[in-house]
UniProtKB/TrEMBL annotation:
Domain Polysaccharide export protein N-terminal: 25-99
Domain Soluble ligand binding: 105-149
InterPro entries: Poly_export, Poly_export_N, Soluble_ligand-bd
Name listed for the protein in its UniProt record: Capsular biosynthesis protein
UniProt superkingdom: Bacteria
């Protein structure tokens, strides 16, 4: 009986996981270092398989010229492209904008493998530390801070705190 319940729960997790990622994409703000995909149904020449967003956030799009992706959600960018193509170019364009790769997070200080790691939705500080090989013997496990991308300030955080793309996590050294 318990095997059946476990199988049902696992099936539900696999079914619901894509919805969590989709919900995340509705609120996610595109930033420098992200890679996006733009698909226009039935219009291969208007689709872009992979587009790296640089620091300017600008890119050239067919017929519409220069567009800015940075500081917009995928939904906002999709609406901008849809509205730009509607009328003169297409009657009813079906556009999809999705994140294919998130910008990196960085884990520095007293971890075994400091460096940049690909962000994943749902990432927490403890998971990021695990990606970086775990704490060193000299790590101050209660002195962990995060600086948000583009911000000078550091905020003390707990191991369960959420991590956002572009965050820099610093684990300080203990004195004992």
């Amino acid at each position: 009986m318990s095997h059946t319940i476990n199988a049902v729960l696992l099936t539900l997790l696999f079914i619901l996981a894509p919805f969590k990622a989709l919900a995340f994409q509705d609120t996610y703000i595109i930033g420098a270092g992200d890679k996006i995909q733009i698909s226009v149904y039935g219009e291969e020449e208007l689709s872009i398989e992979e587009l790296y967003i640089n620091n300017s956030g600008k890119f050239e799009y067919p017929y519409l010229g220069e567009l800015v992706a940075i500081n917009k959600t995928p939904e906002q960018l999709k609406n901008e492209i849809t509205n730009g193509l509607r009328g003169d170019y297409l009657i009813s364009p079906k556009v999809r904008v999705s994140i294919t790769e998130f910008r990196s997070i960085y884990v520095n200080g007293e971890v075994k493998k400091p460096g940049g790691y690909e962000y994943q939705p749902g990432l927490t500080v403890d998971k990021a530390i695990a990606l970086a090989g775990g704490f060193t013997d000299r790590a101050a496990r209660s002195k962990i801070s995060i600086s948000q991308a583009g911000s000078e300030s550091k905020n003390r955080v707990k191991l369960s705190s959420k991590v956002l793309p572009g965050d820099i996590i610093v684990i300080e050294q203990s004195f004992f």
